[in-house]
């Protein structure tokens, strides 16, 4: 079973066994609905969403399987996943996890994407080179072509 990361269970919230969850997906309403099942891959645990509330930049989620704050705390700092088959197909957009591991190049090979960082103005690719990390904006002005099948990203020439 192939899984896709959609959130991180941070800690418990309140006395009724709610979980404070950091969202790691653009499809919040689709991923975090009552009845949806989320997986904690590292522990091979499935959790069914019973109730969802927005709180600041987080979600407060009540899972059917977790009744107390102590039960929720057992899963603190665990990543939440869905099955890949539930992932929506994108057109002219990319899932961050699909970009990680891609070779970045222009006239020469630059390095491998190690992380995609989300910022309010733009997303940034962290590229691991032989001796340092390079940050490249993941915006149309910098990206010439993304080929996920070949795991390659062509960017413009630049002076580093």
Structural features, described:
This protein is mostly beta strands and 160 residues long. It has two domains: 3-86, Elongation Factor Tu (Ef-tu), domain 3 (Beta Barrel); 96-155, SH3 type barrels, CATH 2.30.30.240. It is 8% helix and 48% strand. It has three helices and twelve strands, in the order ββαβββαβαββββββ. The protein has helices at 28-31, 69-73, 96-99, and strands at 3-13, 18-23, 37-40, 45-55, 58-63, 78-83, 103-105, 109-118, 123-128, 133-137, 143-147, 152-155. The chain has a six-stranded antiparallel β-sheet. The chain is elongated. The relative contact order is 0.16. The model has no long low-confidence stretch (mean pLDDT 90).
Q: Identify the strand order in the major beta sheet.
A: 3-4-5-2-1-6
The total of helices stands at 3
> What does the main sheet amount to?
6 strands, antiparallel
List low-confidence stretches. none
Number of discrete domains: 2
Helix % is under 10%
* Name given to the CATH architecture of the largest domain: Beta Barrel
Instruction: Give helix and strand order, one letter per element, not per position.
Output: EEHEEEHEHEEEEEE
Distance between the termini: 41 Å
Shape: elongated
Radius of gyration: 18 Å
Strand percentage, roughly? over 45%
């Amino acid at each position: 079973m192939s899984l896709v990361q959609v959130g991180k269970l941070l800690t418990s919230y309140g006395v009724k066994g709610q979980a404070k969850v950091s969202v790691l997906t653009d499809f919040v309403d689709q991923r975090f609905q009552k009845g949806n099942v989320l997986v904690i891959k590292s522990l091979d645990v499935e959790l069914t969403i019973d109730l969802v509330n927005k709180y600041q930049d987080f979600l407060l989620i009540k899972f059917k399987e977790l009744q107390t704050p102590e039960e929720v705390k057992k899963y603190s700092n665990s990543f939440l996943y869905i099955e890949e088959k539930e992932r929506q197909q994108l057109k002219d957009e990319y899932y961050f996890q699909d970009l990680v591991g891609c070779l970045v190049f222009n006239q020469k090979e630059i390095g491998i994407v190690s992380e995609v960082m989300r910022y309010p103005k733009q997303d940034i690719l962290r590229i691991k080179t032989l001796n340092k990390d390079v940050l490249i904006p993941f915006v149309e002005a910098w990206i010439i072509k993304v080929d996920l099948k070949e795991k390659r990203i062509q960017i413009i020439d630049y002076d580093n």
